[in-house]
Hints:
Layout: H1 9-17, H2 21-28, H3 32-37, E1 51-57, E2 60-65, E3 71-75, E4 80-83, E5 90-98, E6 103-111, E7 118-120, E8 127-128, E9 146-152, H4 156-159, E10 163-170, E11 173-181, E12 187-190, E13 201-207, E14 210-215, E15 219-224, E16 229-235, E17 242-249, E18 252-260, E19 267-276, E20 281-285, E21 291-295, E22 300-304, E23 318-323, E24 328-333, E25 339-341, E26 354-356
Parallel strand pairs: 8-12, 21-23
Antiparallel strand pairs: 1-2, 1-26, 2-3, 4-5, 5-6, 6-7, 9-10, 10-11, 11-12, 13-14, 14-15, 15-16, 17-18, 18-19, 19-20, 21-22, 23-24, 24-25
Amino acid sequence: MASWEDLPQEILELIAGRLAIEDFLAFGAVCTLWRSAATKETYNAKSKAPWLMIPVGNGTAEFFSTSRGRIHPVKLPGCRVQPLSPPQWILTSRWGYDQRVSRWGHEYRIFNPLSQVGIELPSLAKLRHKSRLSLLKMRGQGGAPRIHRIALSSGTSSSGDYTVMVTICRDLRLLGYAIHRSGEDAWTGVSPAANLPRSNFRQLIHYDGRFVALDTHNRVMTLDERECRMQLRLVLGQTFAGYPYLVECSGALLVAWKIWRQEDGTVEQARVFEVDLKKGTQEEIKSLGNAALFLNGNSAISVEFDAETCLPGIKPNRIYFPEKKDEKMHYYSMKGGEVETYSDAPSVYVHGATWIQPDF
């Protein structure tokens, strides 16, 4: 009888590709042969259950595995954390005296909790083309400028070549947009779309090789990185009493609306639209097919199921979200049109929790 060590490489890769991240890492630690099958190219995070990230203070966060029910504490290089696009990365920040610019302010770092890769971002005081950020007076009155929305281009961990886009605010008042490219030591200001004033972004993601933003006027814009200027693509035709999310799902760009009940502000339904940036159009979709969405306070994740995917407690064609009123996780069924409690996520882990997709 052949031993496990004699299994063909392609069989080992098929097994490894079906494992949750904890089991995938353990699989690769068995022996050299298994380690060669459990590479980051084998792992497909988009077909795996996401984790809940719960900041617990003192520069530490707990990551709750929904598929295994385990908690993984991770030390972070900062005191404040927020998820970003791509969803395997988080932004950490700490307040301190920045020797680089000889002033107090927020020090920011992009961090991957799984690979432990960190990228230190330049001080917000280091800006090129300040005319594009005319409101950005670093020594002005009020609190220190800080990053409000952020997105990161893909491929960071593999190539080291990346671009970061941010919106910068002071006391929740928009100051402007900026980008930072790998190899540079400063930010470059970004101009608003032609004939449009600057507006705050509700959503900012990296999709199909470009940065895409959804502003408070329901305008979808993309960044012309060469010109450092936003471009208007379309204005959403529908406005709901709720909050919209930009999310990539099965290669398509979606706007998912979480719609609130007027009586108490809880979520009563969701509606989803597919956006075509080239045509400048949107079309409502009634089913997510073999996919599910996970909504955070200001970001979203998609998970794509296949025939072999097994995610305990998580089903396709649903939209998962935290509900502040009862501090529990809920989901909206696209098929049945009802909101239900997601009982596999204990309420103690929902308050202040955000979804993250562990990946290399």
